Amino acid sequence: MPSSLIDDVLRVVSESDVSDLILHAGKVPMVRRGGEILGLDSPEVSADDLAVLWQRCGAPAGARDFDAALVAENGVRFRVNLLQQLGAPAAVLRRIRSGIPDMDALGLPSDLIREWAARPAGIIVVSGPTGSGKSTTVAAALEWINESFARHVVTIEDPIEYLFAPKRSVFTQREVGIDTASYAEGLRRSLRQNPDVIFLGEIRDAASAITALQAAETGHLVFATLHASSCGDVVERLQFLFPALERESVARTLANQLVGVLCQRLVPTEEGSLVLLVEYFSNHGSSRNIIAENRMPDLRDFISRGDPRFARSFADSLLILVKAGRVSEETALAISENPQEFSRMLRGISSSAQATRR
Fold first, then answer.
1. Which terminus has fewer CB within 10 Å in the chain: N or C?
2. Model pLDDT, residue 306
3. What are the residue ranges in the chain where pLDDT is below 50?
4. Burial (CB count within 10 angstroms: exposed 0-12, middle 13-18, buried 19+), residue 62
């Protein structure tokens, strides 16, 4: 296929530090860099340009919404969402980094995640809003497994975002819509593929949730992502995927099979970049009883008051970033779920600093 404006734009994006590309017919390409949206020095994107992108992504004619993966001419991968807006074609592309980052470099609780990833069985849930780096976190954990253990890792993704080169482990990567019909079907079939580790790109419904729990029960380590705003919300949402009469049984199974939950967000720094903000807990001891008995306020208290090696709240993580000078107090208060409580925590920092100076 001859080079096009789309190829030129993808080449520019591939060679820069932007994360997302937004294409609207009749407008110049827009990119996201850090927390800003910027226009490229480029001609406007035409409907014909977007038709080239549609064809390259394999979208059927007339499609109004279509997800795909795209490899640019220089080998850089993109996750693509093709859509219509105001009756005209458009697309949003997220650049997928070719190298898999190290967990320490991402700012994750690496020792804890390594402990989780070394387990022979159970389910690990990574949650957060779209664009918060959930897939990157899981990829970093899977790459650590790849370097550390002889495992067969099966991934079910929509689309595939990172390609793994076998080291000590071997990978079978399946894309929803191309290699398997759905997440639930791909997960169910994966149990016949002799896996040690399964990565489910997203838990979307009761069928995928119950199959993931059953896979954990039968001796597999399952990684899964979920859209939820906190660790407590993850546990609640997993239960509320099921009819009311099944939730008690699901809660007991989840209490026994859950290894841990990591919830993450990206927040703006003083330097104008983004930094990872995390909340997490390792499920053991009293948290198992809390989950089995569906005592969500107690779970949130467990996270906020637990040993920071095994549990930490968003508020405590945010406080650490403020103390380190990475995030301003104004930004922290603006994004805090409980600004009044966080303000009291900040005053505690100030009081401690004053006492130290005395």
1. C
2. 86
3. 1-2, 350-358
4. exposed
Helix, strand or coil, per DSSP, at residue 57: coil
Residue 87, classified by CB atoms within 10 Å of its CB into exposed (0-12), middle (13-18) or buried (19+), is exposed
The DSSP output letter for 351 is: H
Q: How far is CA 279 from the centre of its chain?
A: 13
Phi, psi (rounded to 5 degrees) for 48 = -65, -40
Buried b (16+ CB within 10 A) or exposed e, 184-196: bbbbbbbeeeebb
- What integer pLDDT is reported at residue 158 of this predicted model? 83
What does the angle CA 233 – CA 234 – CA 240 come to, to the nearest 5 degrees? Answer: 85
From 245, 194, 185, select the one nearest 218 (Cα to Cα): 194
| E strands present in 177-336 | 197-200, 221-226, 258-268, 274-282, 311-312
**What is the reported pLDDT for 350?**
44
Q: Are 225 and 137 in contact (CB under 8 A)?
A: no
Which domains are assigned to the chain? 5-96 (3.30.450.90), 103-265+278-297 (3.40.50.300)
pLDDT tens-digit map of 50-95: 998 988 998 887 788 998 888 888 888 888 999 999 988 999 998 8
Structure token digits, residue 7: 């190829």
Q: Do residues 164 and 170 make contact, with C-beta atoms less than 8 angstroms apart?
A: no
d(CA 186, CA 222): 13
Please report the beta strands in the chain, taking only residues with DSSP state E, as ranges in sequence order.
Answer: 20-24, 30-33, 36-39, 65-71, 77-85, 88-96, 122-127, 152-157, 170-175, 197-200, 221-226, 258-268, 274-282, 311-312
* pLDDT for residue 19: 81
Query: Is-contact 310 71, C-beta < 8 A?
Result: no
State how far the Cα of 109 lies from the Cα of 281, in Å rounded to an integer.
10
